């Protein structure tokens, strides 16, 4: 774990809304700083740190959950109408708290298709997919909420237990190639550590409301798959051209191949000074391989 400029303490209390892959990793890490971290779930479970929040069923956390909360991280996607379910149900409650910081996990899909060109936070979002249009709408809701929010735009997320290795093991890998197609990606540990870095140094860094978190080296999907097969010591199946494969892909799977962009991390890494743990897919996948 990185050492930071200042310390989070046991007086800090985080609410993580939407405890999926990224939210769970963040919660486990932030607890190592002595902080309290409560995580939302759509239904009751045995996790002592969990509370129920289900906007579709109108189930709202009880008042005790919000006592002493200093930080909030929302990982919850838009609802079916493209609105943010956290703000739709909890905005007034959050505004009543003395929050030091709020984070919202969004997607680099809001940039749309740049035909392989680089995009940064200064570029105007032009989302192509409906799901990304909904995300952009939620970003707007958060920026207009009067909460101390930072929005993190994320590309493809991977990490131990959720990587190309799992697809290979389940024999559900599709080795598809498309000329000049690249994807940006980020290891889940860098999402968490970048956010913690920004929280820890927020008093000494210039505030930026929107920040990309991506690694240094966008690349083709086939490069990633080949590298995984090499690490495992197996021969990669013969690639299929996207035009031949797309008829067998679901509409959502096809949609990922429609967009082609390289996501810049210069604001995070050069301007704000965060050092990536996994600068590229090779370093990140070695971590996954050792932990799978």
Instruction: Indicate the overall shape.
Output: globular
Number of helices: 10
The count of DSSP E runs of length 2 or more, i.e. the number of strands, is 13
Share of residues in helices: 25-40%
Low-confidence runs: 1-5
Strand content: 15-25%
- Helices and strands, in order, run as EHEEEHEEHEEHEEHEHEHHEHH
Radius of gyration: 19 Å
Main beta sheet strand tally, sense and closure: 7 strands, parallel
Explain what the structure shows.
With 292 residues, the chain is of the alpha/beta class. The protein contains ten helices and 13 strands. The chain has helices at residues 21-31, 85-96, 130-143, 164-169, 188-200, 221-232, 242-245, 251-258, 266-271, 281-290; strands at 13-17, 36-41, 50-52, 71-74, 101-107, 118-119, 149-154, 156-158, 176-177, 185-187, 210-212, 240-241, 262-263. The strands form four sheets. A seven-stranded parallel sheet has the order 3-2-1-4-5-7-11, with helices on both faces. It starts with 12 loop residues before the first strand and ends with a helix.
């Amino acid at each position: 774990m990185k050492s930071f400029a200042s310390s989070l303490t046991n007086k800090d209390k985080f609410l993580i809304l939407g405890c999926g892959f990224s939210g769970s990793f963040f919660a486990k890490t932030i607890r190592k700083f002595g902080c309290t971290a409560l995580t939302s779930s759509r239904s009751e479970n045995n996790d002592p740190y969990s509370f129920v929040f289900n906007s579709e069923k109108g189930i709202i956390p009880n008042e005790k959950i919000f006592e002493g909360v200093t930080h909030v991280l929302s990982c919850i996607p838009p609802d079916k109408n493209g609105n943010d379910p956290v703000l739709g149900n909890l905005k007034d409650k959050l505004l009543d708290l003395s929050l030091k910081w709020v984070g919202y996990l969004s997607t680099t899909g809001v940039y749309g298709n740049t035909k392989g060109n680089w995009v940064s936070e200064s570029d105007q979002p032009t989302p192509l997919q409906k799901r990304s249009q909904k995300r952009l709408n939620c970003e707007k809701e958060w920026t207009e909420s009067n909460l101390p929010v930072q929005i993190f735009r994320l590309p493809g997320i991977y990490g131990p237990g959720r990587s190309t290795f799992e697809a290979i093991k389940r024999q559900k890998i599709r080795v598809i190639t498309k000329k000049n197609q690249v994807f940006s990606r980020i290891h889940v540990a860098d999402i968490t550590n970048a956010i913690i870095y920004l929280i820890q140094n927020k008093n000494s860094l210039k505030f930026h409301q929107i920040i990309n978190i991506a690694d240094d080296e966008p690349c083709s999907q086939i490069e990633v798959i080949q590298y995984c097969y090499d690490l495992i010591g197996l021969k990669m199946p013969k690639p299929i051209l996207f035009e031949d494969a797309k008829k067998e892909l679901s509409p959502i799977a096809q949609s990922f191949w429609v967009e082609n962009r390289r996501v810049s991390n210069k604001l995070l890494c050069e301007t704000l000074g965060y050092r990536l743990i996994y600068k590229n897919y090779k370093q990140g996948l070695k971590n996954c391989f050792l932990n799978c």
